[in-house]
Amino acid sequence: MKRRDFVSLVSAAMGTSILGSCRKDWIETEALHEEMMTARGGGTVLTRYPLKIPTVVSPSGLILDSKLSTSDLGGGQFSNVWAYSYNGQIPVSFPGPTIRANRGDNVTIQLQNHLPEETITHWHGMIVNHENDGHPMHAIPPSSVAIPLSVLDYNYTINQRAALNWYHPHPHMLTGKQVYLGQAGAFIINDADELALGLPSGEYEVPLIIRDATLDSAKNLSYKPSAGGMFGKIPLVNGTISPYLAVKRAVYRFRILNGANSRVFGLALSNGATMKLIGNDGGLLTAASDLTRIEMANGERTDVLIDFRSILNGTNIMLRDLRAGWDLLEFRVNSASEGSPVSLPAPLSTIIPLTGPVTTREFSFDAMSKINGKEYDMDRIDWTVPFGVTERWRFKANGNGPHPVHVHGASFQVQSRTGGRGGLPFPWELGWKDTVLLEDFETVDVFIRFDAFRGKYLLHCHKLEHEDMGMMANFEVI
Ligand code: C2O
Ligand code: CU
Questions:
Q1: Choosing a second label site near 358 at 20 to 30 A (CA), which of 84, 272, 315, 365?
Q2: Do residues 140 and 120 touch, judged by C-beta distance below 8 A?
Q3: Is the C-beta atom of 48 inside 6 A of ligand 1?
Q4: Using a 6 Å cutoff on CB, does residue 408 contact ligand 1?
């Protein structure tokens, strides 16, 4: 497979290439590729382990216990983790269990803290009130002699469209470490509109939490970030080293999350086939796009159909990261008969564009720890936003990127990008988003409207090391 093969992107939705030509930052890094080849043992066959698929749980009466434990990364290679155990289950789940619920369902989750430090769980992408948002000011202390069981009870109703969201810790200055050591899981919302599409489900719908990690000499997850972020030496998918997934000759739906602390992935298939992008952070797009490469910054999600029907039985196809030159997940096609096609209606879903912003606010992501020149202060509210009004928020990166910008409390719609990879939004940036990638010297405009709750929310860089160093701000919807 030639690298060149990956760099042309076709938007089926637009019927034309809207994405410009080859970009330097998209080319596989030769050095990293070589490093990886060595790590593979210079071409000897690498042992692969079955992809872990986290258990699916309901958020009604769910107990998530944050604790120190060990987890099998594949083939009995146990690593120390800080992970969630659920409903008293032993062992812990790394990644966390997949929470699945319908729009309209009530969420009652108890977080228990058995870590040696404070924690708090945030529901990334869930539109909930301030009290349930997992703001760092609500962090709970570790359990101790004085507080034998330190808990936080969440209680909210899901009122938003079908999407893949996720949950992870958000304690001030400790988020990077706690996420890295194993606390993150998928939170899937279903609704009637999505159900009507008859998308692949059951064993044909697979969540993929892609991240990186470095293992120390004892094979434990080692968190040693630099100011520029935490870049692990190997990929993990669903907490599995060198994973494979046996697939039938059928169409699969992959619910993908970039759960890395700092690393951006450029996803592609080793056979150069297209992946059909049908959704992202905020759920289904209005139209599908057939793409040979999808960029995902940390915190971003994509919803992708991969069609293995025409693949010969016995073939292996690799999901790769073209940025680092990594093999992420091997699909092993192993069925004789061919599954049925998936036909998608047009439009896939309805998204009403936000229009007519009344205010423009500018946010510059400065150095590695500041927004508009200021580091985070838990007690400071940096701006207020009127409830129910559309605004234009302009995010600017002044170097030290990439900075994936994330907003709590509302989804937004990407309008434009200038500088860097400037131009129209990429196909995976259409529709509703809550996280958008800023590469160095890019400016991205989004329209946003807070029409669910008043209260205090966060804007921050989702490179978790930047966030922990202070690239975060409080604002209040009034
Ligand atoms: Cu995924 Cu404020 O976080
Ligand atoms: Cu940043």
A1: 365
A2: yes
A3: no
A4: yes
- At position 227, the amino acid (one-letter code) is A
For the segment 343-359, what is each residue's pLDDT rounded down to a tens digit? 999 999 999 999 999 99
Over pLDDT 70: what percentage of the chain? 91
- Summarised one tens digit per residue, pLDDT across range 76-91 is 999 999 999 999 998 8
| Angle CA 331–332–337, to nearest 5 | 115
Q: Give the amino acid at 25.
A: D
State which ligand 1 atom lies nearest to the alpha carbon of 408.
2
A 10 A CB-CB count for 301 gives 29
Task: For residue 428, report the phi and psi dihedrals to the nearest 5 degrees.
Answer: -80, 0
**Cα(170) to centroid of ligand 1, in Å?**
7
**Cβ proximity of 252 and 305 under 8 Å:** yes
Shortest-distance ligand to the CA of residue 301:
1
pLDDT tens-digit readout, 42-81 = 455 689 999 999 999 999 999 999 999 999 999 999 999 9
Pocket of ligand 1 contains residue 299 by CB under 6 Å: yes
Rounded to the nearest angstrom, the distance between the alpha carbon of 464 and the centre of ligand 1 is 9
Q: Is the CB of 466 under 6 A from ligand 1?
A: no
Q: Which atom of ligand 1 is nearest to the CA of 166?
A: 1
* Degrees, nearest 5: CA angle 195-198-199: 95
**Which atom of ligand 1 is closest in space to residue 299's alpha carbon?**
1
**Residues 52-79: b if buried by 16+ CB within 10 A, e if exposed:** bebeebbbeebbbbbbebebbbbeeeeb
Residues 6+ apart with CB under 8 A from 34: none
Q: Whole-structure pTM over 0.85, yes or no?
A: yes
How far is CA 137 from each of CA 35, 65, 131, 410, rounded to the nearest angstrom?
42, 20, 10, 19
The predicted structure's pLDDT at residue 227: 77
Distance 132 CA to ligand 2 centre (A): 25
DSSP string, 153-181: EEEEE--S-SEEEEEEE--TTTHHHHHHT
Q: Is 396 in the pocket of ligand 1 (CB under 6 A)?
A: no
Closest Cα to atom 3 of ligand 1? 124
Q: What does the pLDDT look like over 357-395, one tens digit per residue?
A: 999 999 999 999 999 999 999 999 999 999 999 999 999
Residue nearest to atom 1 of ligand 1 (CA): 124
* Residue 135 CB less than 6 A away from ligand 1: no
* Cβ(124) – ligand 1 distance below 6 Å: yes
Q: How far apart are CA 409 and CA 124, in angstroms?
A: 9
